[in-house]
Amino acid sequence: MKYAVINKEDLNKWLEHLKKKARLYAPKEKENLFVFRPVKDVSKICLEYIPTILPPKKYYFPQKEKLLKFQVNPFKTAKAIEEFEEFILFGVHTCDIAGIQCMDVIFRESPEDPNYLNRKEKMTIIGIECLKYCDEHANCTSMATHVPRGGYDLMMVDIDKVFIIHINSEKGEKLVTGLSYIKEAKDEDMFRLDRAREEKKKIFKEELAAPLPKVYDAFDKSFGSQVWKDVGKKCVACGNCTAVCPTCYCFDTADDMELSLNDGIRYRIWNSCQMDDFAKVAGGEDFRKGRDSRQRHRYYRKFKYPVDKFNRYFCVGCGRCTRTCMADISLKETVNSLIAGQSA
Amino acid sequence: MIDREILLEKMKTSPYKPMKAKIIKAQMLTDKEKFFRIELEGKINLSHQPGQFVMVSIFGYEEAPISISSSPTDKGYFDLTVRNVGVFTDKLHQLKEGDTVGIRGPFGKGFPIDNMFGYDLVIVAGGLGIVPLRSLIRYIMANRNDFGNVQMLLGCKTPKELLFKEETKEWMRRAEIKFNCTVDRANPDWKGNVGLITTLIPGIDINPSRTYAVVVGPPIMYKFVIVKLLEKNIPDHQIIVSLERRMRCGLGKCGHCQIEGMYVCQSGPVFNYAQLGNFKGECHEKAI
Questions:
Q1: Residue B128 to chain A, least CA–CA distance (Å)
Q2: Helix (H, G, I), strand (E, B) or coil at A238
Q3: ipTM of the complex as predicted
Q4: How many C-beta neighbours within 10 Å does residue B275 have?
Q5: Is the CB of A253 less than 8 angstroms away from the CB of B63?
Q6: What pLDDT score was predicted for residue A344?
Q7: Cα–Cα distance, A107 to A116 (Å, whole number)
């Protein structure tokens, strides 16, 4: 079976089934926005949502994560987490799945990061394809992350009264087989899926002012651009943009001691290149002193450096950095200004 | 090298887990710098290349990147020399012989020793730059016949800040060493030069195409020294530098040490000057 079909009225039944298999995380509403949360009540799950405040990265790259258990005297170290838990991410947009693929590239690169890889191994991803735009801040079509391109176990597409499910792994197949209410897709289902994708092409148009290779060229030539000074003047260095980015993974480590001052845990904590001491060394030199240089660094880590290194853009077009910015810095506007600066 | 394989295996299973190590010698060198000789548990050799660094852990005080200042030819232990500049290094300075620290590493790329065989060397050390360079110098002294002429230019703020005074005398016997101190007030017994280290470079006698220059010092020093070396016609790929950055994980992940697209902890800290040519503005050490 490659494609399956489930009636919408059976969705909650399936979710109850998934909940029994592993810890289930899914999007739900919170104060007019959306968040991924552990599912208690399956009826609270919301599949029509704009990108959640935080991407699901909080589950595979936790904001504060145990790296090491230690003891000062006598000197002892031990694994902080003995066993990682099976979990299912349900209802993940294709942009966020592209974000997970970026993280895979980083943490698989030698030397590998066992914490991330162990978590990833226990993760099942059930995606949902968007057939209409979340809002005007997304640039997923330009980044080509608006359609599924692997990286998931199951992918659902909302077609009228059913979801058509693409089965993309053995792990995924096991979650849809043996259930009376999930059937193999028929030719007419596939025809409706094709038609939905054709309709989608009419709605989703490249959001950036130039195709990606031109965007790359603009970045290649814009290191000294005035655009960075303008962005730097607006930026308040709060670090929101990096916290909500599905492909930001910079971190710091911190030791937390118990009251005995002998036992403790070393944590890894999200950090942001937008913080003013991020690149400062003990001798006092700060290698990215201005907010302009720090914002530029963030953008180059999406549109230039990873392209050179991995042939992969680390912007997935989810629009979160723009939505969350307190200073109204818009990714689309910034990139388009760079493109305009090139043609001027 | 069996020790190296043991270390790599440890790294693979848990790259964040420090190895137990004992301080077997601890000694203040100046008011601010302390020397530590360290032995890994089981007397495993660190098997590093000169120019690499380790992450030193003190539980409760986190970790800091420290360059190794002994040569891999020094077996059974390795040396660190640390200036007291902050919370971590202050705690490290309080440790004494017999105390335990955690060690991860060695990390990064060291000096390209094999490429330097048969070449003349000009080693330029400013201030604390002598600390990582000591690993190279000790390696050269142990394999002296592999290299041509060795000249060293040492610079520091005042004569009393000069590190490894006794050892320097031995180096002097086997290599040409020119001292330079940028002193405001020289002691009457100071016999070295006075002035910036750059003033020593025009006077060195070299065959540029057969010479490697190795430069380590504070960030501000590089661009001035490199300009002078380029004026001596040393090819840019034979000018070697080691860059100070804020390494936090050593694994090319955490982002703190990044210069543009490059993780210094993995691709550096040692670079040749041709590599710095590709940076567009975040490498403060680059001469314009």
A1: 10
A2: coil
A3: 0.90
A4: 17
A5: yes
A6: 59
A7: 7
Residue type, A292: D
Residue range B113-141: mean pLDDT, rounded: 95
Question: Is A47 buried (19+), middle (13-18) or exposed (0-12) by CB count in 10 A?
Answer: middle
Q: Do B260 and A68 touch (CB under 8 A)?
A: no
pLDDT in tens, A289-328: 999 999 999 999 999 999 999 999 999 999 999 999 999 9
Q: What residue ranges define each of the domains in chain B, with the CATH number in brackets?
A: 2-107 (2.40.30.10), 113-276 (3.40.50.80)
Contacts of A251 in chain B (CB under 8 A): 248-249, 253-255
Q: Are B174 and B149 in contact (CB under 8 A)?
A: no
Cβ of residue A261 closer than 8 Å to a chain B Cβ: yes
Contact B244 A72 (CB under 8 A): no
B241-270 pLDDT, tens digit per residue, is 999 999 999 999 999 999 999 999 999 899
Residue B283 has pLDDT above 90, yes or no: no
Give the residue ranges of chain A where pLDDT is below 50.
Answer: none
- DSSP-assigned beta bridge partners for residue A97: none
Query: How far is Cα A323 from Cα A34, in angstroms, rounded to an integer?
Result: 13
Angle at A207 between CA A204 and CA A208, to 5 degrees: 150
Give dist(CA A244, CA B235) in Å, integer.
45
- C-beta atoms of A279 and B245 within 8 A: yes
Assess A67–B contact: CB distance below 8 Å, yes or no.
Answer: yes
- Residue B221 CA to residue B243 CA, distance in Å, equals 11
Start-to-end C-alpha separation, chain A: 53
Q: Which residues of chain B approach chain A closer than 8 Å at the C-beta?
A: 11-18, 20, 59-64, 83, 85-86, 89, 100, 102, 218-220, 244-246, 248-249, 251-261, 280-282, 284
